[in-house]
Amino acid sequence: MATEITMPKLSDTMTEGQLGAWRKSVGEKIERGDIIAEVETDKATMDLEAFASGVLLEQLVQAGELVPVGTVIGLIGLPGEAMPAEPPPVKVPVPEAKPVIPDEAERMITTSAPVVERQPQSPAFQAAPIVRRRAVELGIDLADISGSGPEGRILLDDLERSPGARPVQAEPGIVVAASVDVAPAETALQTIAAQPFSRMRAAIAKVTTDSWRTIPHFYISIDVEMGRVEQVVRDLKTEGEALTLNALILVAVAASLVKFPELNSAFTDKVMLKYATVNLGFAVAVEGGLLVPVIRGAEDKGARELSAEAARLASRARSGSISENEISGGTFSVSNLGMHGVSSFASIIMPAQAGILAVGSVADRPVVRNGNLEIGRLMTATLSCDHCIIDGVYAAGFLNEFKRLLENPNELPA
């Protein structure tokens, strides 16, 4: 019996996936564990492994198609194994009529209820359910289509390449509205184009909207003098060691979360979940949106190890090769727009987290030291908190610890 290949659920939030490409052709031999296809989620591209051996009997979904999780996308079986047959016609028994008026019921002639066989309106064509739905959307009768797939199976491309296909006739009693050109009102807004969201943009929209609706945000900011830590970065560069300012910021965040663990938690169903480790996410801009790679166990990593891991994950995110596991499971996040000249901003908290730190640029600003007006190298950090579990005083304590560590970089884990 053929084994179904289904669209896998690669994360807790995944509801649909796009088939990126088939790695195996119809009729090609497959061993259990072979990579048979690429699946694209809203975050990453993943390899799909075979869970059975045999040959690829059929590709039910073509590259580029977006289908719900659990959809059968292909079949694996023995060479020459027959395809699953179309389901037989459904026999629906007609219920026996019940008398409404007793006097009239006595005059009725009792007859046995006939069995009516429901016949399809058109012959059964070799086409996947998604192809049939698309044909209905396009108003195309499958009788006019010659399938180019295995054993004459009709593919989505066949529908698109069939300009001469006739529309399906409307059923009796259904009025089909004619296409009418309506002149726009003079006050109507003019648009250039209606551009559909990419899968990544749609995912970002959903996550941020859900977070904004369900998490009561509040914000608190602090200025940090960065002169000493900038000097540390310059000194290390002179010695041939590349350590970025952003890496030291991440180290300071991880160390501060150890002292203020409630920010490394989440609120759910009136319960605060405290995470055992600091899995630190950091935003990375990519084409079409952003990703948030996660540094696992960040509290146990020194500056050098954390810097190397952050660089590796950022590179994988920008190249599109990052895995689902590397962008999931975060417990706290950091967003840094300092390199873009942004002085300060506030971020939206990620789902299942209690806070996110938004970091601005380091710039020359006036400061007062010992009663004297001087120029200092200042950075503004803004903490977004979930007010369900975090209060202002606790948030202030975290920011002051973060500030203390960066202003005394010799106390940062090496």
Give me the strand/helix succession. EEEEEEEEEHEHHHEHHEEEEEEHEEEH
From the helix content, strand content and strand pairing, which structural class follows? Answer: alpha+beta
CATH architecture of the largest domain: 2-Layer Sandwich
**Order of strands across the widest beta sheet?**
11-20-19-18-14-17
As a whole number of angstroms, the C-alpha radius of gyration is: 31 Å
Q: How many helical stretches?
A: 8
Q: State the end-to-end distance.
A: 59 Å
The low-pLDDT segments are: 87-92, 97-123, 168-180
The CATH topology of the largest domain turns out to be Chloramphenicol Acetyltransferase
Helix content: 10-25%
Main sheet properties: 6 strands, mixed
**CATH C-level category of the largest domain:** Alpha Beta
CATH superfamily of the largest domain: Chloramphenicol acetyltransferase-like domain
Strand fraction equals 25-35%
Number of strands: 20
Count of folded domains: 3
The chain-level mean pLDDT equals 82
List the helices and strands and how they pair.
Blueprint lengths: L2 E4 L9 E7 L6 E2 L4 E6 L4 E5 L4 E6 L6 E3 L3 E6 L13 E3 L8 H6 L7 E3 L11 H10 L17 H5 L38 H16 L2 E9 L1 H12 L6 H15 L5 E4 L2 E4 L5 E3 L1 E3 L2 E3 L2 E2 L7 H17 L12 E5 L18 E15 L2 E15 L5 H16 L7
Parallel strand pairs: 14-18, 18-19
Antiparallel strand pairs: 1-8, 2-4, 2-7, 3-6, 4-5, 6-8, 9-10, 11-20, 12-13, 14-17, 15-16, 19-20
